[in-house]
Each structure stands twice: as C-alpha cells, then as structure tokens.
Specification:
207 residues; alpha/beta; Rossmann fold; 5 strands; 11% strand; HAD-IA family hydrolase; HAD-SF_hydro_IA
Length: 207
C-alpha cells in the first residue's frame, strides 16, 4: 500500500480491469489467417492508432485518413468504427460483483478511463453496472490521456476528493505510476481476488 492513511473513494479503470479488450476479436472472423490478422492489428488498426481516438481525435477523420493510407483495407477499417464493441467480449471475472459490493456498502466509486467518447456512450448503455460510478472521467471527452498529470488533476476536481483520498486500480503500470506521482494510492490490476484483498486492506470491504 502506497499511503499511510486509508483512502476514502475507489477509482476504477475500465478496459482490462472491468472488461476484457482485444482488437483481435473484432477481426477474428474478418481475417481468417492469423498471421495476416496479426500484421493488420500491428500496422493498420493498431492499439497505438486507436489511442488517438481515446485521446479525443474525431473518428471520421481518423478513419478517412487510415483508409487513404490503406485503401485495400477500407472495409476492415470501417469495421473498427462500426463494430468496435465486438473487441470487448465481456466482464473480467469477479469484478462486477466487487463493484456491486462496494456500492452496497456506500463506498464512493468513480472511473477514470482511456476510452473514446463515442464508444463510451454506447458501451455504458450496454453495461448497466456503469451506473454505480458517481462520475466517470472519459479521456476522449476530455481530450486528455492517462498518464498525463492533467487528467488526474481533473479527476480530483470532478470527484471532489484530493489525491491522497483516492485508491485507483489500472492494468497499465505507467498509468498507476502517474496516479502515484499525483499523490494517489494506486495498484496495478492483476485479478479480482487480488483487487478485493487490496480493498479489504484499505478498509473498504470486510474480509
């Protein structure tokens, strides 16, 4: 634990914490050959390219530019824009139960996610458990990405808690480091049992 005083609120990342995410799933049936699919995801619709949309770049402009660069893959690039949620196959085991347990115990719960605004709107409609978050800072909406220090400062302002009052979990070590540098208590996400133990240690949940 990185803080000497127990925090007061819990902040969740979403992708690869609450839900699985894998661009390969979006293209598994569209590109049958695994080597060709791996090349496409590394070079055309890549996580690095997708991160631009997470950061607030307009989807239509991104897609048009990419299709101009790779016209032979135009329909596959369109699939990213039209069917992105196919890359999210479901919840990480045990995490919705933990979220609901925290909510039942009146723990203040928030989310801080690198997520495109357009995709978040659809995603949150389809995942009713997102209603438990008192506020969600969405990178694409704010045009700020973790681990930019500005997004942690914005989150503190939105949530109404100082950094030392927040416990944050994220699957990306750089994002956890950014939170710690902002004064938050933060841990790299491993799995639901480990996360629940961390919550128990901080007094959020009973053993």
């Amino acid at each position: 634990m990185s803080q000497s005083v127990n925090p007061k609120a819990v902040v969740f990342d979403i992708g690869r914490v609450m839900v699985h995410w894998d661009l390969d799933l979006l293209y598994r049936e569209r590109i049958a050959d695994p080597d060709q699919r791996a090349w496409f995801i590394a070079n055309v619709v890549s996580e690095e390219w997708h991160r631009q949309h997470d950061g607030g770049r307009e989807l239509a402009a991104m897609v048009a530019e990419r299709k101009a660069q790779f016209p032979e893959y135009a329909s596959l690039i369109d699939a990213y824009a039209e069917d992105f949620l196919e890359s999210i196959p479901g919840e990480v085991d045990g995490m919705v139960a933990i979220l609901e347990e925290l909510a039942a115990n009146d723990v203040p719960i928030f989310a801080l996610t690198n997520f495109a605004d357009t995709f978040w709107t659809q995603f949150s409609r389809e995942h009713g458990w997102s209603k438990h978050f008192r506020d969600v800072v969405v990178s694409g909406r704010e045009k700020l990405l973790k681990p930019d220090p500005a997004i942690y400062a914005l989150a503190e302002d939105r949530y109404g808690y100082p950094g030392e009052a927040l416990f944050f979990t994220d699957d990306t070590p750089a994002n956890v480091d950014g939170a710690r540098e902002a004064g938050w208590d933060a841990e790299v996400f491993r799995d639901a049992p480990t996360f629940r133990a961390q919550l128990v240690a901080r007094g959020f949940l009973p053993a």
